What we know:
- The protein has helices at residues 2-36, 42-75, 86-120, 159-164, 167-182, 185-194, 201-219, 223-239, 258-266, 276-315, and strands at 125-127, 135-138, 145-148, 154-158, 249-251.
- By secondary structure, it is an alpha+beta fold.
- It has one domain (2-315).
- A hairpin with a 7-residue loop joins β1 and β2 (135-138).
- It is elongated, with a radius of gyration of 24 Å.
- The two termini are 19 Å apart.
- The relative contact order is 0.14.
Amino acid sequence: MTFALRCLSVSLAFFFISYLLLSTAVARGWRFAERYGGGLGARRRADLLFFLRLSPALTATAVTLAFVVPSFLLLEPRASGEPVGEIPLALGGCCLLLFGLGVGRALKAHTKTTHTVDGWLTEATAMPSFERVPLFRIRPTVPALAVAGMWAPRVLLSDAAAAVLSRRELGAALKHEWVHVRRWDNLKKLIFLFWPFVGMSQLESAWREASEMAADDAAVASVSDALDLASALIKLSRLAPVDPPAALTTALVSGASVNTRVARLVAWNPTPVAGSRGSALSWYARAGALGTTLGIFITYGAVLRDMHALTELLVR
């Protein structure tokens, strides 16, 4: 029992320290990666920012499960009478508090969003949809047009929005929302809530802006499509507030990027953004991942011994 408690507390302590250090590094340095990603298209930029936001949790989890836990199980004597230690217990408790905070934030946002969406759907009318995503006509003015739900998403269109948008404008706006569904953007917002860190708000805001631009790009195939979507953005921004109506929904008009999005659409160019930088980044990432994997495979035993020596510092 003591051995299992020591293993758990050391593993949680290492995860907690790693997560805090990596999150601090990402919160302070993500702009450098974004500056490099300025030559990427909106979709790749959104994917890059999403990866950066989750990289502390992913890295800390991978290192803990691949190195910390095995090094303790294989190299720590089970018959040792060594006590658990106050430091790993305290840090492990902080890690559990972090998990609890993340789960609480996610549950609170999910519950509040569900309650809000249920209110919107009161007296809603189902409409024909060209996609597999259900489309509902709702009475409230806000949201004018939004995607609600993660596992069973629905597109909500207000009566007011349907009245002011032309058929082509509505079609372009619906294509934009269907892109959010295919990219699981509401689920990504929920994942962010699971991993709280005080310095990540600006990165998350940049991701939301990039994801909106990515959906704009995917929704248009011609200059006329781009102008129709820009017109829909302008009309709906005058009709409804810009602030998001619920945490886990994605509205067509949201955030401070509406003016920037309209300007991009008006100046829409059918020629895609040069992908040389994105291709180079992809190849560098693949080569780095392959080299890292081979290096770990070759030196795994030595790395486990070094990791065990490192985690011993937490126990002492």
